[in-house]
Amino acid sequence: MCATRNTLDVDGHRIAVTNLDKVLYPATGTRKAEVIDYYNRIAEVLLPHVHRRPVTRKRWPDGVDSEPFFEKNLPAGTPEWIDRVEIAHRSTGRDGNVSYPLAGERADLIWFGQQGALELHVPQWAVPADVDGPDVPRLADRIVLDLDPGPGVDLSRCAEIAVMVRDLLDGVGLRSYPVTSGSKGIHVYAGLDRPVSADGARSVAKQIAMSLAARHPETVTAVMNRAVRTGKVFIDWSQNSASKTTLAPYSLRGREQPWAAAPRSWEELARSDIRQLLFTEVLERVEVDGDLLADLDRAPVRSGRSETDDEPVTESDRPVVDLSEYRRKRDEARTPEPFGDNESAGADRERGPIFVIQEHHARRLHYDFRLERDGVLVSWAVPKNLPADSGQNRLAVQTEDHPMDYADFAGDIPAGEYGGGHVEIWDRGTYETEKWRPDEVIVRLRGDRIQGRYALIRTGDKNWLAHLMSDEPRPITPDSLRDPRPMLATEESIENLSDEAWAFEGKWDGYRLIVEYLDGKLRLITRSGIDMTTEFPELGGIVDDLGLLDVVLDGEVVALDSSGHTNFSLLAARNATGEQCTIKLMLFDVLFLNGRSLLRTPWSGRRQVLDELAPLFTGDNAVQVPPLLPGPGGRAAEVSREKGYEGAVAKRRDSVYQQGRRSASWLKHKNWRDIEVIVGGWRPGKGNRTNGIGSLLVGLPESTGLRYVGRVGTGFTERQLRALADELEPLRRRSSPFVDKLDRPIEQDAVWVLPKLVGDVRYMDWTGSGHLRHPVWRGIRRDKLPGDL
User: Fold this and answer.
1) Are 580 and 635 in contact (CB under 8 A)?
2) For the region Disordered, what residue ranges are annotated (predicted)?
3) Residues 384 and 462 in one domain
């Protein structure tokens, strides 16, 4: 960057600069020249995180003590060299389009600084390189959760919640990255292996936020109402919407101090002295540590469609055998994958060319579909496997050709290597070629698990559409749907069940319902055949969700209490007591769709159909298709406990739907356990519980004294809390009755009591630190004394 009196020469671009001595941050005397210098020096690590993302600027031309304004449209006089994109907006301007800058060079950032644009805000979607607007596909390639501490919450507490968010994201296979926002809170980002719709990204973020709020109602909220944020961290999931933006990593903040959005390590978030960082500190950190977000936005955006890690094959004239790209990506000394040395692989040609589908547990589970052609396996990555119904279309992403002996490969690719993860053969067989053109392939597959006539149609440079062709029309008759009784599960341990043969779902505590929507009429039928349609007016939106479809679904209607947990008692008595609750229908199976009975379709095929229907319910708060639990069985049981579910259900992937039967093809596992504990103290509440009991501190007797086993903060009515306060008041003492040393936040505000009261607690499991997991208060045991335990 070369400077003259009134201009800067930045990488060949001349930028007029003015008022370089103007103080933009009066509290520190930080001048515009320093802001411009910051954006110049931080450009290398900032630009990848705004690459191809339309930039909304928040400007303070007269400094942070003045009134700022947001700017979307580029102003008159914007240099021609600044890349830009026209994007359609409703009710914006005469033609409804906005001209956004796309920051791709240092010079762009320096020009923003000259404009007094201290804050740069971008969406979680990027503009594909082959699209120049205005109808830009808004596919998110990352998600963000904005953790905003409410009154009375410091940054260290916000960091604790961020770690909880990280653990949930880890549970669904998403690596996450924390960024202190430069204001009050923390942004947690997670990259997506393939772009998804903004609605899909928002749904994932919302589910995580709502889950945490349900599990930690005292400290977390996912509700935007500011009145409920005191003492809590608000997890804002809405910033993943197509129309929303978030402060870009490394952007300055227009606050009283020149703080910046600073990527942090998870180790830093564990420190009690965590704080926001000044822009000078961020520069120093980058010089030492580089970009802590380097892996978040590594891949360039090529098109408006989903992608995988593999690079495209762009040659239209394919050589007979060229495995150079395959070998370039792999180290023969580090991976057990074949390298084309076995010339006899797949040599049995009497039955015809072979195909293979390999289940690949890499960063994301996907299926590799390979067809023998000209001495190699022409390959596609299919995220959801080939479609099982002609009404489905599936994305297939072409990858590099593989050697023929890869058709026999099953095993583990080491972590850190290309495609690292477990590979197993899902199906294989032979096929006949009907058509093979550069942009269209039609084959008939003959495998053990999959058969039929499939078309692959190119829709992008490496993206294809996979379609099961319908050779003859199917009659529209609801076959075998006279029996409304659902299939039932047998109670049996699921701990030793494998992922390969079994899938795992949450177990819900409500009314089982068969949902019939045929010829535009909705019926909700219980397992005993009772029509409860009028009992649940909240579910009437299903009619609008399904539109012209004919479908029969299986699910469970539940009542969620104020903490977000299912409560059967509340469901059963809701009309009698008038107590507030949220009704939600959890859908987990589909039995019939548009004239086709799915009763004899294996569970795996039915689940694929259900996943295709799930987006129809995105806007319906009363209906949800819950995600599957990760396996194997032991892990599924553990996750169901962590999420506060009643239990878990295991279903054989190849099981057909047996109406009205209790089958060993479905197994159920219940989580909750009961224990009797001794109350040793309590912590004051927050929000609605201010000046009262927020949670009880409980323990178990041992030979050395009372051992602390955790806090119980749910399961109480307001009347019970008041009665407990009255009963514990005379038992106050100055010191802790527990032999353990408790965490400082608990020690600081705990009210200790004589350990005389015995309580009954329902819980799921024990944590690694020996505390009760998800304890729920059930009541006082008047029939027992502490010595009885």
Assistant:
1) no
2) 301-347
3) yes
Phi, psi of 689 (to 5 degrees): -100, 10
Residues 307-322 have a mean pLDDT of 39
- Taking the C-alpha atoms of residue 240 and residue 237, their distance in angstroms, rounded to an integer, is 6
Token pair belonging to 459 = 């829709």
Q: Which of 670, 692, 718 represents a domain boundary (last residue)?
A: 670
Are residues 429 and 447 in contact, defined by beta-carbon separation less than 8 angstroms? yes
- pTM, full prediction: 0.44
Amino acid at 172: V
Same domain, 659 and 549: yes
Spatial neighbors of 302 by CB under 8 A, at least 6 apart, are 128, 129, 130, 461
Give the burial string for 237-272 (b: 16+ CB within 10 Å, else e). Answer: bebbbbebbbbbbbbbbbbebbbbbbbbeeeebeee
Q: From CA 90, how far away is CA 110, in angstroms rounded?
A: 31
- Residues making up the chain, counted from first to last: 789
553, 587 Cβ separation under 8 angstroms: yes
How many CB atoms sit inside 10 A of residue 45's CB? 19
In terms of Cα–Cα distance, which of 143, 114, 153 is closest to 246?
A: 143
Domain holding 680, by residue range, is 673-788
Measured CA to CA in angstroms, residue 723 lies from 593, 713, 756 at distances of: 54, 15, 16
Single out the residue of 110, 51, 56 nearest to residue 296, CA to CA.
Answer: 51
- 441 vs 423: CA distance, rounded Å: 25
Number of domains in the chain: 4
Q: Which of 468, 501, 536 is the last residue of a domain?
A: 468
Task: Point out the residues that are catalytic.
Answer: 507
Q: What's the pLDDT tens digit per position in 489-512?
A: 887 889 889 999 999 999 987 888
Give the residue from 618, 606, 620, 626 showing the smallest Cα distance to 556: 626
What is the spatial distance between Cα 324 and Cα 340, in angstroms, rounded to a whole number? 11
The tokens describing 772, both together, are 């009760």
Which one-letter DSSP state was computed for residue 596?
Answer: E
Q: CA 152 to CA 570: how far, in whole Å?
A: 32
DSSP state, 48? G
CA distances from 722 to 678, 716, 717, 726, 728 (A): 19, 10, 9, 6, 10
Q: Which two tokens stand for residue 159?
A: 């960091």
Cα–Cα nearest to 569, from 395, 758, 715, 689: 715
Which CATH number belongs to the domain containing residue 242 in this structure? 3.90.920.10
Within this chain, do residues 374 and 283 fall inside the same structural domain, yes or no? no
The residue ranges of DSSP E strands in 671-764, in sequence order, are: 673-684, 693-702, 705-712, 732-733, 751-763
With a pLDDT cut of 70, the percent of the chain lying above it is 88
Span 316-362, pLDDT tens digits: 333 445 788 888 899 888 999 998 765 444 444 445 789 999 999 98
